[in-house]
PLP-dependent aminotransferase family protein (Streptomyces oryzae), 478 residues
Amino acid sequence: MGPAELADRLGRWSAGRGPLYLLLAARLRRLVDEGELPPGTPLPPDRTLAATLAVGRGTIVAAYEQLSVEGRIVRRRGSGTRVAGPSRPGPREATTAPVFLHLLEPRDDDVILLACAAPTSPPPMLQSAYERALSQLSAVEGDMGYHPSGHWPLRGAVADLYTRRGVPTDPEQVVITNGGQQALSLLARAFVQPGGTVLVEAPTYPGALEAFREHAASLHTLPVGLDGFESRIRTPGRRPELGYVISSHHNPTGNVLPSLARRRLAAAAADADIPLIDDEVLAHLSFPGQDVPPPLAAFGRTVISVGSLSKSVWGGLRVGWIRAARPVISRLARLRAVHDLGGDFSAQVAAAELLPQLETLCQDTAADRQASHDHLRAELARQLPQWRVPAVTGGQTLWARLPHGDGDSFTQTALRHGVAVLPGGGLDAAGGSQEFIRLHFCAAPGTLTEAVHRLATAWHAYGGEPDRGTPGPRVMAV
């Protein structure tokens, strides 16, 4: 692609606040993710593009390097810069990014999806909740259903849920969202300025990374649990705008942050007046006899809790929430109203019926989830004994370490053998975790057995040798 054509597609890329290289990287990232720059597209040389955009060469170099770390472009001496992935002759597919969405589109093959973690069937309890909700809807009068902050009874049910868990909460401290991903997007929009620093775990949930990158955040990584957060925020001139942590049944490692570590983390954030997002989407998914400590919000006033029913109940129930201080909730409600005057009213009424029973529902399914976890680990140990796959105490995923090779290239081999898994590099903002892949254990035992058989066949074909070609595109997954 010539520099003039690229400049035209970039549009008003510099119209924003923050370093130019981050603004340019953010716009290029969007063009790649939306398919405007398909895999294999050559990008102009540094100096040529700098002259066209009337910026210094260092701006182009820094933007390219940022996208290279993320795996979106490949830079090679002597062969230039290209969008990651092989070039595709002819018309491109309807969507090229995120790959997760592509995997969920109707397919003629029988690929087993171990990259997308969520219950695949609604429980009977949800049907009962909808039946009760429909009877309530028949009596609704004088209500348009426009509620940017959410259905008031549902906000009350969420508040009660936190109160039962030791965090006294008022309904005015809750805003309802269309799932946990919209919650993260709203928070990124509210708190992240272009070029602002967000502290994240490495690895972490990739949907959060994409939400922050969408607003041109500068992502700085710390180990799981945000270990080192206190010393990092004390570094002069490097104050972060936001922190993001998954304290319970961490996605992807399964880690549960101990009470003392929660107390210190929340206190440090409060002392520095730094908003700290605690992603609690998986918090209720403990195995039998495995309790988690109180929510992070119990220990600090700047903690913002995010929850959702898509992991604990059903992926198709797009109801989530944010619990925070009242001023934060008011701000988020105003931001949401710009894009959405409210969520699905009937789903929220059903969720309000269901939420008081959430702990019971999760307890009832805990033994089955643990059995699936144990079954998947046993099959992996039997067919792929070289892999290191630690046990977890809840959640939905296993973090598997390959003995050699890399996750990016192996996942491509696995997909050709009929199973989709998530490469670890896409979950690490620092570009690490290349030797890992993420698997979920939400499927039925028979499906998991077949998936491991296909993984073993793929591993044999792969040979464990790293692919020296270009890595596959980053995967946004849940």
Remarks:
- The CA atoms of residues 424 and 433 lie 5 Å apart.
- Residues 124-359 form a domain with the Aspartate Aminotransferase; domain 2 fold (CATH 3.40.640.10).
- The radius of gyration is 23 Å.
